Amino acid sequence: MGRVAGLTSEEARERLLAAAAEVFVERGYAGTATGEIARRAGLSTGAIYSRYASKAELLADAIKAHMPAELARLISDGALGVPVPDVVQHLGEELPHRPRQISAMLVEGAAAARRDPRVAEVFSAELTAHLGTVESLVTTAQQEGSVDPSLPSGALARFLLSVALGTLLTNMMDLAPVDDADWSTVISRFITAASPAD
């Protein structure tokens, strides 16, 4: 693809992140050259290095851009008065239907983090931020009385994030799909179990 002129800064960033996601998934972190990302985006390598100090930072931003946006929306929905269990039910029901590219980006990020300290740093920071968001959601639910306040919020948040990440990873595998109604039933049962005892 030739270079694309006349793009706004945000349009250029979006093109870079879309191209980065494609190349990282296809070639892995180690096998990805920033020049190839720039070529696919129709931009110069300078467009990458004017935004990112390293390939690790580009990978982290690509992961953030291609992760589901539901976590951020959860807090805003909660602020709008949507009951937290309803929000969690909806999020859980959507997990098996997330695009495979999101799962592939997570796998690539985790694999790269084992070999590259800078990737490990940015990947850990991203997961820590997500964990904080989930814990905030749990705390809100405990305060509103829909989650048992005796449950440790940090441990419950880690469990929920682990389920979400694990589901994204299993989406990549050639496992027989779980019936949507069965999946919804399991999520509902878990929410009920985490509710305060009558």
Automatic annotation (TrEMBL):
Q: Which residues bind DNA?
A: 33-52
List, alphabetically, the Gene3D superfamilies matched.
Answer: Tetracycline Repressor, domain 2
Keyword Cell membrane found: no
Pfam families this protein is in?
TetR_N (PF00440)
Q: Which GO terms describe its molecular function?
A: DNA-binding transcription factor activity; transcription cis-regulatory region binding
Report domain HTH tetR-type positions: 10-70
- Keywords, alphabetical: DNA-binding, Transcription, Transcription regulation
The cross-references to PANTHER family, in alphabetical order and at most eight, read: HTH-TYPE TRANSCRIPTIONAL REGULATOR BETI, HTH-TYPE TRANSCRIPTIONAL REGULATOR RUTR
This chain belongs to the protein called TetR/AcrR family transcriptional regulator
* Organism of origin: Actinomadura logoneensis
